[in-house]
Amino acid sequence: MRRVAQIGFSGTFVGGVNQNGQNQPQTAMIWKYKPQPASAAVENLSQMLGTTSGSFPLPLATVLVQRGITDLESAKRFLSPTKDALHDPFLMKGMDIACERIARALEKGEKILIYGDYDVDGTTSVSLLQLYFEDLGFQFEVYIPDRFVEGYGISFEGIQYASDSGCRLVIALDCGTKAIDKVRFANEKAIDVIVVDHHQPGRRIAGSGGHVEPYAGWLQLPRSIIVCLCVDNETLSGIAAILGW
């Protein structure tokens, strides 16, 4: 059976399957705004981060204080992080499976299709992975679906393009969480699929024999990741670790 690795995170669970594999009822998404911080704390941080050109923008200082960042050193670490400050990418469920499969593609010289959603999160995720793969010397193609012809997410046309192009692995960015039939179609063509996403999973479909069973990828990281580009970056860190770089 072809294995599907799915990596992702959702900030607020609204139904489907939780990290324990339990079905949950569908509920409404609720956005909770953080209270406005004390103006003195915001102004103080703005002045500390200021340069000879002027103070640090107050709106940005407000966001930092809301995140609990009130002193100069913490702000510098947040605004100018180093590699040592990055999370262990393998705290994310499914990361080991995904990165090992990508590393195997590199070793075997397999061609990869980078498949991205057409919105800003999807296209920036594609760009990041494309630049990284170019440095690694991967053989790859890039595919962005036609919004008006193919619609959102992985399409049958995209999978057929991967097959016609000789790709043996598809990496879907910012889409694919619920594309059970599309992934199965890819598997039937001997193409593996890795889903790197941050959208809410639907109900799990039991897999047996030749069936495909995407599973919910949940984070165990110290802080939330809410866009696919961040999940994509974690994946690149995982690939580097697997390759020993």
Hey, roughly how much beta strand do the residues contain? 5-15%
Poorly predicted ranges = 1-26, 204-220
Encode the helix/strand succession as letters. EEEHHHHEHEHEHEH
Q: What's the Cα radius of gyration?
A: 20 Å
Spatial arrangement of strands, main beta sheet? 1-7-6-4-5
Structural class: alpha/beta
Strands, count: 7
Helical residues, percent: 25-40%
Give the integer mean of the pLDDT values.
78
N-to-C span: 31 Å
Query: Shape from CA axes?
Result: elongated
What characterizes the major β-sheet?
5 strands, parallel
Helical stretch count? Answer: 8
Word description of this protein:
By secondary structure, this protein is an alpha/beta fold. It has helices at residues 39-48, 58-66, 72-79, 95-108, 120-136, 156-164, 180-188, 228-243, and strands at 4-7, 16-17, 23-24, 111-116, 139-143, 167-173, 192-196. Strand 6, helix 7 and strand 7 (192-196) form a beta-alpha-beta unit. Residues 1-26 and 204-220 have low confidence and may be disordered.
